[in-house]
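Researcher: Structure for this, please.
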Amino acid sequence: MSSRSSGFRIEYFPDPVSPQHSEQTIVRILYGARTEASESGLQLGLPPLGASALCEHWTSDRIERRGESRGFRFVCFGPWMFAYAVFSEDSSDLQSLTRQAYRDLLRLAREQGYPWILRVWNYFPDITGSTGGLNRYQSFCEGRRRTLVEDEQAAGLALPAVTTTGSCAPGFAVYFLSGREAGKSLENPRQTAPSDYPEHLGPHGPSFCRGVSHATDGQTALYLSGTASITGHETRHHGDVAAQAREILHNHAAVIEQARIEGATCPERLHDLPFQKIYLANPGDLPKVEDEVNSVIGRETPRYFLHSRLCRDDLLLEMESTYLHEPA
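Model: Predicted structure, token format:
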């Protein structure tokens, strides 16, 4: 890659104080014991496991402006915008809080000129705890869905790739990447589309897609949503964390193949998927998952392990990936 990139970069560092914030910094995301947002970046209550990195550093040579609006801090760089916020649940139930956060998210993206939501991350504690007849994940999904239904301009937007997992600290963290141009939503033929999930999983299906391909200004990207051991709509391999890891990798491979069929620039192999985050419900499962991942994609592919509760109690882990590519 040339010294001056046309797009943006994501790097991981073991030291939480390095690298320092610079003019090229989009955001520094630290993983650890608490969740909070500040001018210097975002901290998430997702403790790293094993030798995983503590600092995720997004950078670009094309930063145009920074600002704060509607509770979010944002950075605009070329054809993209990154924004992040942490909301308190002290005075609001999660469904209402989600509705407001997503209203503001959509309005912010449109106001700044980046209306196409490409990738979203959501983290909040006690994700499967009960609230008002739904668990908290279902309540979050219902709040998000109601905002998308009520916002007429959002009806024409392609669904984004999404990760939603449980954090280990108070605070509802939301961050997202949006663009001036639309991405292409991707589904997985091995899985039921989230919007078509049966009613016993929630009153309405979750509003996300399995992946998004996006190409603009010389950079192509493939964003793979948080992916679990699910085929159709059902959890597979109950209690077997190694088998769940294998199923997830099969699902990732299926989305990559679907992206290729639809003409997107894709990695040739799973080995070429960098920036792979793996969320583990039980930290003690780390050795088994490491062994399984190594056996499928080798030891050289970057991966980072975080402790996180998942949206179903029978899911033991979840993985996500971001593939960024610029022509040589």
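Researcher: Any notable elements?
Model: DSSP finds four helices and 21 strands in the chain. Residues 241-261 form the longest helix (21 residues).
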